[in-house]
Amino acid sequence: MSQKTQTKRVRILVSKLGLDGHDRGALVLCRAFRDAGMEVIYSGLFATPERVAQIAEDEDVDVIALSLLNGAHLTLFPRVVKALKEKGINDVLVIGGGVIPHEDKTELEKSGVQGNFGPGTPLPAIIDFIQANLVKNRKI
Fold first, then answer.
1. Distance CA 65, CA 96 (A)
2. Of 123, 69, 77, 66, nearest to 101 (Cα)?
3. Of 46, 69, 43, nearest in space to 56 by CA
4. Does a structural domain hold residue 81?
5. What's 115's domain CATH number?
6. What's 13's DSSP letter?
7. Confidence class of residue 138 from pLDDT cuts 50, 70 and 90?
8. What are 67's strand-pairing partners?
9. Alpha helices (H) along the chain
């Protein structure tokens, strides 16, 4: 008797942090992730790092995709990672995107935010990055 292997769908939280009200890119990401077979949770606009961590805990997400266009990525992205750690959440892949200067990417990676995709990044590249890093770092 053969057993079907059931794979868990990736649960991803897409979040717009702080006072950034530009959500078109985040909404495009939501659709792309959904079309790639992921289960998408959207935080809505103006989320705080603490709110993002709470949603991540409540929804048992595998990935958090942070989007920010207002230049506060060096402040807000690491605060999300810190809020996750304070909740004991250490196994969620956190990726960043938005207008992120190349010189800021290393600092973000040191803080635990990976990817850090800029404008014009092809959607399949982001999806491939998520899938590759989940396999490498997670229990999926």
1. 6
2. 69
3. 43
4. yes
5. 3.40.50.280
6. E
7. low
8. 16, 97
9. 24-35, 49-59, 73-86, 102-111, 123-137
CA proximity to 73, closest of 96, 102, 50: 96
Asked if the structure places residue 107 within a domain, the reply is yes
Q: Which residue has the tokens 């909404």?
A: 27
Q: CA 94 to CA 55: how far, in whole Å?
A: 13
pLDDT tens, 92-102?
A: 999 999 999 99
- Specify if 6 maps to a domain: no
β 63-68/93-98 pair status = parallel
Number of domains, the chain:
1
Cα separation, 123 vs 135, whole angstroms: 19
Domain that holds residue 40: 11-135
User: How far is Cα 131 from Cα 123, in angstroms, rounded to an integer?
Assistant: 13
Q: Are 114 and 95 in contact (CB under 8 A)?
A: yes
CA–CA dist 18, 70 (Å, integer):
9
Residues 117-132: tens digit of each pLDDT: 998 999 999 999 999 9
Residue in this structure with the two tokens 């961590």, named with its chain if needed: 53
For residues 113 and 96, give the distance between their C-alpha atoms in angstroms, rounded to a whole number: 6
Whether 2 is covered by a domain: the verdict is: no
